[in-house]
Design goal:
The protein is α/β, with parallel strands linked by helices. It has 19 helices and 18 strands. It folds into two domains: 264 residues, Glycogen Phosphorylase B (Rossmann fold); 187 residues, Glycogen Phosphorylase B (Rossmann fold). A nine-stranded mixed β-sheet has the order 3-4-5-2-1-6-7-11-12. A six-stranded parallel β-sheet has the order 15-14-13-16-17-18, sandwiched between helices. Helix 10 crosses helix 13, helix 11 packs parallel to helix 12 and helix 11 packs across helix 17. The longest helix has 17 residues. The two termini are 14 Å apart. The protein binds adenosine-5'-diphosphate-glucose (ADQ). Its EC number is 2.4.1.21. Synthesizes alpha-1,4-glucan chains using ADP-glucose.
Length: 480
């Protein structure tokens, strides 16, 4: 089976968040099942620079007014198609924002072009000798793919639309519609019209044959007004085609026994070796040496991720005997509040702002617990990395966090299945209580190491979820 996966980012070429990790790791997990994935991404400078060998395999004379080339390349086993269209993708900033952090004004065109290219490739006339059996689009940036396919040459090819985060919907003013090269009838309730605007994700959710999101709990939550963010009605009407498949992690990249970014390798049977990573972390963040637990945060600094709650309880965390290290960037006010906490508690709270992949590995290896107080979380990956690294997850009971962490309550401990701490309600009081529970468990080394080892033994691989994607794809092909 051939799958065309289309996304705006893919690890290890370009990453701003968890989407890239998933798009980068899923193909290898599908391969043993006979599913061959080609991944189409935009030719941002960061992507083109990293490709050693690339071969032109197709072209467009005119994609929204510009010529474009489709390049084929391979990196770390990923079979890539890269849409080289300098007028839209050769920019100085990131994939979505300019160097000053503002959204590119032509994002609708940049990602409509990616989606249209995917639809044309699915039609089979662009990359000679290759045509996918299934097209899998990820998030709003590629959500017009099934819409273009519906009105184009690949109307019969089954499509899957995956929601990684419904908060980002790709909503643009109605004025952009004439520029999208869609027939007039597409500006209607059944397609892209969304409260009088154009909704990219809305169009994809209307048109795709199957809709998935990245955990079973989030699949339920987005049917409610609290989490559906305006799309709950549409999703309810498509509930028969909606499923939640939990993310896995790339167990080769995130392996404490081989990780090149950590100070000392370790496993569930050599947890003492984690100490060298703790020392490296203390040094990196200027922490005083001591025995209390080190909590870490590796996150975009946003309201979604509950980072205001971390800032709010930081003083008490230190007063209770804990230490805190934070790696993240995002909202300036949240960044300021966390930096202020770090300067109030030098030696006890450390912060590094920005994006730093190697440091994120050391933090999982050297901290005792990872705080994830998200207000909503489609799946979450950092708690899965935490499980694998013996860095006990302390999570809000929501979405994929609720699905992947087993609470260390008495029953969970007695049954030897507990892997972390869940809390609700998701507010400062909830987080405070959770931290108190962590400190109590940490003071009993036997209890603590049991939680760590149980977490390290839990299956965070892609194996089960890859099977679920394969049966979803097969079901769609069977439907014909
Ligand atoms: N400053 C920093 N430096 C280095 N690395 C950093 C970093 N900040 C974050 N990261 C990394 O970025 C990734 C974040 O992934 P998440 O799944 O936690 O959230 P995100 O909201 O991006 O993803 C969305 O999509 C994914 C994929 O489906 C869902 O799991 C999730 O719930 C959804 O919100 C992790 O790999 C993390 O280590």
């Amino acid at each position: 089976m051939n799958v065309l996966s289309v996304a705006s980012e893919v690890y290890p070429l370009i990453k701003t968040g968890g989407l890239a990790d998933v798009v980068g790791a899923l193909p290898a997990a599908l391969l043993p099942h006979g599913v061959k994935t080609r991944t189409l991404v935009p030719g941002y400078p960061a992507v083109l620079q990293k490709l050693k060998k690339k071969k032109k395999v197709g072209s467009f004379e005119n994609l929204f007014g510009n010529p474009a080339t489709v390049l084929a390349a391979e990196i770390d086993g990923l079979d890539l198609l890269v849409l080289d269209l300098p007028e839209l993708y050769a920019r100085d900033g990131g994939p979505y924002v300019d160097a000053t952090g503002r959204d590119y004004v032509d994002n609708f065109r940049r990602f409509a072009a990616l989606s249209l290219a995917a639809a044309e490739i699915a039609g089979g006339d662009v990359v000679s000798g290759w045509k996918p059996d299934i097209v899998h689009a990820h998030d709003w940036q590629t959500a017009l793919t099934p819409v273009y396919m519906h009105f184009g040459p690949a109307a019969a090819t089954p499509t899957v639309m995956t929601i990684h985060n419904i908060a980002f919907q790709g909503q643009f003013g109605a004025l952009v519609f004439p520029e999208l090269a869609l027939p007039a009838e597409a500006f209607s309730m059944q397609f892209v019209e969304y409260y009088g605007d154009v909704g990219f994700l809305k169009g994809g959710l209307q048109t795709a044959d199957a809709i998935t999101t990245v955990s079973p709990s989030y699949a339920q939550e987005i049917l409610t007004p609290e989490f559906g963010m305006g799309l709950e009605g549409l999703l309810k009407s498509r509930v028969a085609d909606l499923s939640g498949i939990v993310n896995g992690i790339d167990a080769d990249i995130w392996d404490p026994q081989t990780d090149p970014h950590i100070a000392q390798h370790f496993s569930a049977t050599s947890l003492k070796q984690r100490a060298a990573n703790r020392r490296a972390l203390e040094e990196r963040f200027g922490l005083e040496k001591g025995n209390g637990p080190i909590f870490c945060v590796v996150s975009r600094l946003t309201w979604q991720k509950g980072m205001d709650l971390v800032a709010e309880i930081a003083d008490e965390l230190v007063a209770m005997g804990g230490k805190l290290v934070v790696l993240g960037s995002g909202d300036a006010a949240l960044e300021g509040a966390l930096l202020a906490a770090a300067s109030r508690h030098r030696g006890h709270i450390g912060m590094v702002t920005g994006y730093n992949e190697p440091l994120s590995h050391l933090m999982q290896a050297g901290s005792d617990a990872i705080l994830i107080p998200s207000r909503f979380e489609p799946c979450g990956l950092t708690q899965l990395y935490g499980l694998r690294y013996g860095c006990v997850p302390v999570v809000a009971r929501t979405g994929g966090l609720a699905d992947t962490i087993i609470d260390a309550n008495e029953a969970g401990l007695a049954a030897k299945v507990a892997t972390g701490f869940q809390f609700t309600p998701v507010n400062a009081d909830g987080l405070r209580l959770a931290i108190r529970r962590v400190l109590r468990a940490y003071s009993e080394p036997k209890v603590w190491s049991k939680i760590q080892t149980q977490g390290m033994k839990s299956d965070v691989s892609w194996a089960t979820s890859a099977e679920r994607y394969v049966s979803l794809y097969s079901g769609l092909l069977g439907k014909g």
